Amino acid sequence: MGRILALDVGKKRTGIAATDPLQLIANGLTTVATIDLMEFVLHYVKMEEVERIILGYPKRMNNEDSENMKRVLPFMNRLKKTFPAVPVELYDERFTSILARQAMLDGGLKKKDRRNKALVDEISATIILQSYLESKRNKLTYK
Length: 143
Prior knowledge:
By secondary structure, the chain is α/β, with parallel strands linked by helices.
């Protein structure tokens, strides 16, 4: 069983998270400049077995695609061409930044550390991935 990689693609930065090999829990990995994202993914896939890639699906409250979708969709297509054997999926990312900031507050991070946008992006990717894992488990439970 390979890892699942999650990417919260932004204009400047992308938060990255991955599961353990058994796909039980999501762990934040890092944040990279979005311009360097493909290079990071290429290297990661060489080093680790990746079973699936999850991209944060940027949606508005009215369920329409947000402005960031114009960056996510071309990147998703590029991933599918580069890694044809690895499924690439979109997963709703609404509220992940808010949840990430709340997690930082609940975790006792100082105000200065909570302003670290890169850390917010990494935690957001982790939340996206953990939510994806839980939704998969819930589907198995209710079948």
